Amino acid sequence: MKNTLFLTTLLSLLFTVTAYADARTDYLINMLQNGSSYRVKVQAAESLGRLKSTEALPSLLDALKDKSQPVVIAAASALMKIGNPSVIPQLQEARKKNQNSAVKSQLTAAINELSSIQSNSANESLSTITSSAYSFLVKVDDMGNSSSSKRTDITAVLKNIVTQALQKRPGIDIQPAKMAPKQIKKIIKSGKKSFILSGSIIKLERENNFIVVNITLNVFSNPSYNLIMMPAGEIKVPIGTDSSIDIKKAEEKAMAQLVDNLIGKILEAAPNVL
Q1: Quick check: helix, strand or coil at residue 240?
Q2: Under a CB-based contact definition with an 8 Å cutoff, are residues 237 and 250 in contact?
Q3: What is the pLDDT of residues 215-250, one digit of tens each?
Q4: Are residues 110 and 167 in the same domain?
Q5: 159 lies in which domain range?
Q6: Are residues 145 and 258 in the same domain?
Q7: What is the pLDDT of residues 3-32, one digit of tens each?
Q8: Which of 16, 41, 51, 110 lies most in the core, judged by the most C-beta atoms within 10 Å?
């Protein structure tokens, strides 16, 4: 009885801490997006960087376009602390467009740090992949958007959803960004299968009390980029009538559900077509 009570109490505390952390992150993201002054946005960005919040990546990338130089500097610093090399292209683009020396200096520091992380990760991943018994090596390519959605982060969101959906599946390794074609061919010759996965959002909109998502995923041979299959699907998810609903989160949950279904179909067919 005591053990049961202890476990129940522990689970309750863990849930409370997680809920608090999520609420704090949501609050900081809102302050970064809608803060009344540049000081508020700077503080929000700095806090998100300390928290290493991957959920904040799209908002921090948007902040690189802010008119306030301190906000751009704080956003670049936060992205460097979070340590996700996938944002390097956006940092490079921001560096091209900014002439202020302080801004360029922080953007350069972030790019250099993330490039170092990417290089180390590629070497570690290659060592792990070569020695592990995996079923598939998957390169997640850039995503597209032909829907009516105006979200500037939506292709990055889709890429992240696809990557996370693959990582949850057993027997899958994500290909490091700088893996050479010779290395890929060597792995394939060892008996492993590999493919490149890209995709596009065809439809993403709210219809009454539903979120409607239509996505096409493109499967290519690796490394030759020959198209193998194009699974597509549509999902309609109810979101209710509550005006406080976070539409962005609702969209992303619907996208994640559809992507998971499509990846299941890909992996089911892959052994016969690769």
Answers
A1: coil
A2: yes
A3: 999 999 988 889 999 999 999 998 877 777 888 999
A4: no
A5: 133-273
A6: yes
A7: 444 444 444 443 443 444 467 888 899 899
A8: 110
- Reported pTM: 0.55
Q: Are strands 210-221 and 193-207 parallel, antiparallel or unpaired?
A: antiparallel
Q: Do both 158 and 244 map to the same domain? A: yes
Amino acid letter for position 124: E
The residue type of 271 is P
In a domain, 163, yes or no: yes
Distance (Å, whole) CA 220 – CA 210:
32
CATH number, domain containing residue 97: 1.25.10.10
Residue 142 in domain? yes
Q: How far apart are CA 160 and CA 164, in angstroms?
A: 6
151 backbone dihedrals φ, ψ, rounded to 5° = -65, 120
Cα 128 to Cα 140, 141, 147, 221, distances in angstroms: 18, 21, 38, 22
Given a contact cutoff of 8 angstroms between Cβ atoms, the answer to whether 84 and 114 are in contact is: yes
User: Are 161 and 49 in a shared domain?
Assistant: no
Taking the C-alpha atoms of residue 269 and residue 152, their distance in angstroms, rounded to an integer, is 33
Number of domains in the chain: 2
